[in-house]
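Can't paste images in this forum, so I'm doing it all in text. The chain is below; anyone willing to post the predicted structure tokens underneath?
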Amino acid sequence: MFKKILIANRGEIACRVIKTARRMGIATVAVYSDADRNALHVRMADEAVHIGPAPANRSYIVIDRIMAAIRETGAEAVHPGYGFLSENPKFAEALAEADVAFIGPPAKAIEAMGDKITSKRLAAEAGVSTVPGYMGLIADADEAVRISGEIGYPVMIKASAGGGGKGMRIAWKEDEVRDGFQSSKNEAASSFGDDRIFIEKFVTQPRHIEIQVLADAHGNTVYLNERECSIQRRNQKVIEEAPSPFLDEATRKAMGEQACALASAVGYTSAGTVEFIVDGERNFYFLEMNTRLQVEHPVTELITGIDLVEQMIRVANGETLSITQGDIGINGWAMESRLYAEDPYRGFLPSIGRLTRYRPPEEVAEADHAVRNDTGVFEGGEISMYYDPMIAKLCTWGPDRAAAIEAMRVALDSFEVEGIGHNLPFLSAVMDHPKFTSGDITTAFIAEEYPEGFNGVELPEAQLRRVAAAAAAMYRVAEIRRTRVSGRLDNHERKVGSDWVVDLQGVQFPVTVKADRAGATIAFADGAEHRVASDWTPGDQLARLDVDGTPLVMKVGKITGGFRLRTRGADLDVRVMSPRQAELAALMPVKAEADTSKLLLCPMPGLIVKVNVAEGDEVQEGQALCTVEAMKMENILRAERKGRVSKINAAEGDNLAVDDVIMEFE
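Text version of the structure:
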């Protein structure tokens, strides 16, 4: 077995590989850029080597820098993680020439299947059903428009060397092909060092289901069931689960056997994933093969009990697979929620900054549930603009799908993140969405269910009453603490009132709090009662309560006269007032919001890469005004209405903060 391996990656996947290597008794080497000098993967590894400036194309994807780190440390093998150099055949070849083991497939398999164009052609030649598309290289936007017209709209513009949603665009008409073609090329070049683009038919109402395969160098190939990856936004997976709620055993077997046959045909070894589009009749079409470990691999590990990173290391060491197809079953259900550094209230735009608070839920592995959090950050660390915005993968397991979802709900509510925008509220909203809980999902789920973007969650009345009852009980505890600190509490008689009005989500609930040593009974004006028990004390930022025998977890912040409570995707300003205070509050005027209708504000911290207009230009609704790049993604900002540009405050190359004024209109 290897004595030392180098991880040619960063963030949570580097940390994930280090954990398995450590368990196997293998020393690890981390590599890091200027931006990652204090990163978690650097702290966790036994050694660390600096490889260059922050941009990935000057550090993490520079083969010579990785090879120099290997020579410096004497590493015997390299695990590439995913992204960066993981699907670069030149990197695999360079390792082979240096007699260093690549913990991944052979260079020829990477070249054959890692390239989207080549893999589709080979799949078609092997008789695999593929999505209609143009497999050749596309020279320019004019050719892209012509090809798109021949295929028929909508089309998917994709980076040949792509992955993780980078360099991908859906176009429904000619103008969108022109804009998307250039943006896809730019993103592909920035993320992968390869700007080749191809186009295929975009299948509406599809499910994205993938098969995990594992192969050794001795002719053995197995499939480890499927993962449902249909909850996507901008072609980026957000929530994954295993198994799929849609497949039956016959379809699972057919897809698995076809995936194994395809892997065997190209001499594939190590872990890999064959991705399919599946329609409503369970017809499946080959999409692509990812010749690497997938982001969502933990859900497969949770239902099979197989450590995929360990298997990759053993295969790279020349070992024969110790498992056969008959050994692989499906134990329970697993969910994965990707925690992204992005603001769901600003159209999911990237967010950077310092994690002033980062407290994941406790990881557990019990007989009836499990919680796992794969992460690459820590409290006090910085989220950089240079890399992918995913900072953690929260996973749960349960004996069935409903149990896995419920475990995820509690885990999401228990996850504390402050200092940056994050998508925890959105993830919670999905977990409660009827279509998701029923399993009735497609890749269009987010676009269809949140067409105007995510504007938060409004809790149904039953849940709202639970929160109101909890807030009343908590406020009573806070008032007792406050009066005790101020010295105004009589030791023999509590002078804290029992009648309150709880105001939240635009609703007021008059309540009476009847407290005892075990908790409090909250009586509502209509006669309904809720029993609340908790050990929460003022100052705690996470409240774990029991309301009527079921758990309620809330993130707690202090505001004047109440709390800011976050639970199940809702972000609530909750005020608890005496009846008289409630009467007076109703008479207070509402403060008007500032008018920003004549300003184009920067929606995220980022780099201005293009300004499309000049001062004095008249612009039309939907016209591109400028392009902002952040976290390897280009975002085109468009005019919301017809107008004239009166002033431009930013130029190409400028780094802007959130809400900086880019341009003004008459």
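The longest helix spans residues 461-486. The chain has five domains: 4-103, 132-201, 222-449, 461-585, 599-665.
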